[in-house]
Amino acid sequence: SKLRKGLEKTKGSFIKNIETVVLGYANIDDDMYDDLEAVLLTSDIGVETTDYLMDMLRTGVKNKSIRDTNDVVPYLQKCIADLLNENAESIDSHSDAVEVIFIVGVNGVGKTTTIGKLAKYYKQHGKKVMIAAGDTFRAAAAEQLTIWAQRTEVPIIKHREGADAAAVVFDATASAKAHGIDILLVDTAGRLQTKSNLMEELRKMARVASKNIEGAPQETLLVLDATTGQNAVSQAKLFGEVVPLTGVVLTKLDGTAKGGVILSVKRELGVPVRWIGVGEGVDDLRPFDAAEFADALFD
Ligand code: GDP
């Protein structure tokens, strides 16, 4: 499958290295622990997740869930699946209100593409979708988004370049309500360099959205580029300070060996990974399923 193919490089480095190290030891001893820790630390899962997995491993050995080195990798697989699964229940909006989803992230991570893919996904699942071009700073952003809107046959609300992003949100939420839209996807500016401006802008957009639709935005998804490894995690922490996040979209998992970053994102941010991007095409976004992901990584 596309997921398995996408994760091949991550599997080939991260998982293969773990297996090689562990199975190189006849018994579980301090040397094995040291070697395994070194492998985990040089992968993209981060220090915190490494510590967590090492603790889990020692616990597993102590309570005899792990009896010899053959048990280590399957045990780690389960730990990783559980870790990814924590708090992963999706937000179920039981109301009839338009579900407003803000898409945030720095430029280049795949925000525009993700919005196009989400539009296609929701439409395919019987939802009425609308897009709001809330990144009024980059003219190219609205243009690209318009192409995606045409491609997926979804209406788009946009203003001229340099317009107030909150005004776009005001128009879009009003229009979405009037037209019985189910899902409103809102693009946002990705200028993290001007953190306080961005914070102010996103807050204003949220305020305006909730004025027209109670509880909006119901979701704020941060888009992160998996190929940037641990940089994605630092970016996520910064964004978390700017705006309350409900989930992460991890793009470009195809063709990177840094897929382990997904664990780091999950553990260090405490927000669930909701979607993963495994290619540039409109169908290359999938809801994140922890068990499926762990299976694809280990099998
Ligand atoms: P934005 O600046 O954040 O809006 O980024 P774009 O949506 O324009 O995407 C930047 C580049 O990343 C484009 O070339 C996309 O085709 C590519 N891209 C986005 N998502 C994925 C993905 O999941 N896999 C791959 N391989 N490329 C992606």
Automatic annotation (TrEMBL):
In this chain, GTP is annotated as bound at 105-112, 187-191, 251-254
Q: What class of enzyme is it?
A: hydrolase
Indicate where this protein resides in the cell: Cell membrane; Cytoplasm
All copies of domain Signal recognition particle SRP54 helical bundle, residue ranges: 3-84
Q: Which GO terms describe its biological process?
A: SRP-dependent cotranslational protein targeting to membrane
Q: Where is it predominantly found?
A: membrane
The catalytic activity, as recorded, is:
GTP + H2O = GDP + phosphate + H(+)
Checking Pfam families in the record gives: SRP54 (PF00448), SRP54_N (PF02881)
**One GO cellular component term noted in the UniProt record for this chain:** plasma membrane
What is the name of the protein in this document? Signal recognition particle receptor FtsY
Keywords (alphabetical) are: Cell membrane, Cytoplasm, GTP-binding, Hydrolase, Membrane, Nucleotide-binding, Receptor
Molecular function GO terms recorded: GTP binding; GTPase activity; signal recognition particle binding
AAA+ ATPase domain ranges (all copies): 97-299
Q: Topologically, how does it sit relative to the membrane? A: Peripheral membrane protein
- Determine if Cytoplasm is one of this entry's keywords: yes
| Complex and partners | Part of the signal recognition particle protein translocation system, which is composed of SRP and FtsY.
According to its UniProt record, the EC number is 3.6.5.4
Family that this chain belongs to:
Belongs to the GTP-binding SRP family. FtsY subfamily.
Q: Where is the SRP54-type proteins GTP-binding domain?
A: 98-299
Which species is the source of this protein? Megasphaera paucivorans
What the protein does?
Involved in targeting and insertion of nascent membrane proteins into the cytoplasmic membrane. Acts as a receptor for the complex formed by the signal recognition particle (SRP) and the ribosome-nascent chain (RNC).
Supply the CDD domains for this chain: FtsY
